[in-house]
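Figure 2 data, in text form.
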Amino acid sequence: MKVLIVDDSVVYRSAIKAALSASDQSYDLDIAANGKIAVDKIKSKSFDIVTLDLEMPIMDGIETIKAIREFDKQIPVIIFSAQNMSAANKTLHALELGANDFVKKIEGSSDMESNINMIQQELLPRFKALTRKAVSHKTVNEVPEKPKKQTLDSTPMTLNQLAQFKPNLICIASSTGGPDALKKIFAGLEKLPVPILLVQHMPPVFTTQLAKGLDQISKIEVREAKIGDQLQPGVAYLAPGDFHMVIKKSAHGYEIDLNQDPKVCYVRPAADVTFESVASVFSGKVAGVVLTGMGSDGANGSVALKEKGARMMIQDEDSSVVWGMPKAVLDKGAQDICLSPSEMINLLNRMTLG
């Protein structure tokens, strides 16, 4: 696998190179100290994936991702980001511009071994997932006939049938590629008369900024969830980074609780925790949505919701950055329909407003 490491810091470049060299996978590594050098190298050489720092001289990460996407829409780009408000905003902007995912940048540790372990745990799974997706795109483009997309007739329920279902609560899960999918969905949703629970795999600060960004573009109020929040119609509650989000009955209906119980599917917040909580506690009708993302989080929770009569939709493979979480739901037979984000918008509006 050919990897281009774009970072002006020798320390970070060395840590990334050491982490990749210590893995079982064979990597052909190249480096660029700024975005301009990186863009020139990508134009002249073939790479499978790029890691990109945001803060660099001459051409920073934002300008670099803009330049790359002008001539290459497919190459996976992973952002290395610091964990502060300014970096979170820049990272979310980079994801909007076409970056595929991000990992937290190494901070506050002089222990090279721990830094290398962190990079291996966070970066290598993303390499595998994103390069698998890129290879899939190349293969599809090379064959004369594209495999048939799942049609409504081949799904357990049709759009018209699902539109008759009237949920009292909507649950949404997403990971890699999720911020862009969520932006599209929330920009298109009407002011829905039901509460929404959101779980996006992101660290603290990033979830705060994501909630603010979604709130600005949506007719729905989007807020980062807090302990004791009462579920209200027309409000979406985003699980904060590093906290699982559950619901419990209250004197006025249902309220949110947060905890730092062990990670589930290697993540916290985990959609499984939220979905299973809803299945256990909520007495009304539920519509569930599992969007693009790595891994299998949300699959067990989707099964739990389905067993309680929920209707489940998953994002289709073509529009997903990584078709891991939706496929895990499909593999368990817990989905009712497979849709693109634009189709989900129409269905959710019809379900709740029709």
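Caption note: DSSP finds twelve helices and 14 strands in the chain.
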